[in-house]
Give the backbone structure.
Amino acid sequence: MPNLNTERSRERLTGWFLIAPALLLLLLVFAYPIGRAFWLSLFTKNLGTNLQPVFAGAGNYSRMMGDGRFWQSIWNTTFFTAIAVSIEMILGMGVALVLNQTFRGRGLARTIAILPWALPTALIGLTWTWIFNDQYGVLNDMLLRLPILEWLEQLRSGTLSLPRFLRWFPILLRWIFPNSIPVPPFNWLGDPTLAMFATIAADIWKTTSFVAILLLAGLQSIPEDLYEAHAIDGATPFQSFRQITLPLLMPQILIAVLFRFAQSFGVFDLIKVMTEGGPAGATEMVSIYIYATVMRYLDFGYGAALVVVTFLVLIVAVAIATFLLSKLRTHISGAQ
Amino acid sequence: MTTDSPSTPAQSSGSLKGLLLAGSVFLVILFSLAPVLWQLLTSLKVNEDISQVPNIYIPLRYTLQHYAELLSRRPFASYLFNSSLVAITSTLLCLGIGSPAAYALARLRLPGEQIILAAVLIVTLFPYILLFLGLLEIVQVLHLANNYLALIIPYTAINLPLTILVMRSFFQQLPRDLEDAAKVDGYNTVQMLWQIVLPTTLPALVTTGILAFIFAWNEFIFALTFITRESMKTIPVAAAQIGGSSVFEIPYGPIAAATVLGTIPLVLLVLFFQRKIIQGLTAGAVKG
């Protein structure tokens, strides 16, 4: 008769044996670099100190407070993330709703729709750089076929007649370009404002499919008879969407926003390939600034402090999302 | 489905709905394919057609010269080899290390299990820029620069959280009787894992493996930082660094061809394993 206690402890030992290699690797590649960044951020270690660490206390952090380039990169990243993630969520929801319908060739449509997610971001950056090329780019080519100059002239003289659902567009244009609205051919990656929107567009193309995949899984778990009962009660499809789909999809929506926020806040590949943060720092994200600080200026201490701040922003976001998720869970289980 | 209702008004609204659906499906497909197809078309155009304004949408001449140039004038075959080697090795390592850990977290009662799981979940959110500084120091101290290990080790690690989450949710769905029977037959845990559980987990391993391969193949920042020797670069980095002999002479054709070559393996994976990719992604992100 085996002793229950030794059996439990043997199970435990086997468990640790099975889990140890993974834990060690995770500690090495995730925990160590983050911990090291916290430690190194307290030191000055750059060309001025011959790359030797010299204790600096909070020196790097107080330098950060007065570093205009850092604040600019924070603002750029926040703007990029806010616009990109909002549009990705809306488009991703649209794509998920379409792919959730029954139609012939749905499998193939789903396959094609997840393609952007699967492709290497750096190569997608090259693809969009070519599309946005000011001389030979296909986007300018298509825009030049439209009477844009004429429209801008009419806009200036106030004679442009737009359909009702597009009335907001000129207002948005004037707000984005307070001084002068650019005319074609557009210098997409050479104009500070346009470059920001060009990189956002590329990011939206790349990651909308990820959002769609997550939301599609959620949509499939909502039972069909809920909609049928709702329709018998006289609800329109739009009402069903607001009263059934959105609330039941909330967990997936939150998870998608959290994932996208984190990835977008650390966006690197796309920017590095498309603009390298330019023109004139207009698309310099925190990640690009960190990379330049370490790799170009060899300023390891300050780079570490930048890593720490970015890490803390992410942790706060995770905390908020986890809190909202747990509230949702109790809400849903309370309703059942 | 309500679209089959026989009355006339419903029928007309049904065909309108069908038209709307067809239109939306077309838009989704156009949105997803157009940029890639444009790059493919560019890679097959002759140089004069590439720099033609207005653009040529239906070229009359096609060429493979840009592909030939990649393979003859640049070590593009090595780039493909490097990417494959690093991605495949790290994927196998990741499955080998991650699955036992996932099993332990699913089945055995371990102290601190919840903390480990929470940490694994949070870690999936870290952008790699947070890790590259610390890893760069390790690479320098251990003299791993321009060594495949400098990529294989981080790639194995960044795919571990996903592997653990997906495999754990798979193990939880596996009937316990199988393992109980094996225990009665006198297998110890490791033997049972190897001889009984592993064969049944093959589908889940394939799912996870595909995702891990995609992430490893696509990784950019570590490959950019830790590998500087030309012949050891991976495809994304090599393609991003293709330059002309002068600033004014950007080789758009070869860049487009490099993009196509670097994406073909992934397009094939998606074509054959669409269902598995979706399953894996949602299991990794939503459950767990």
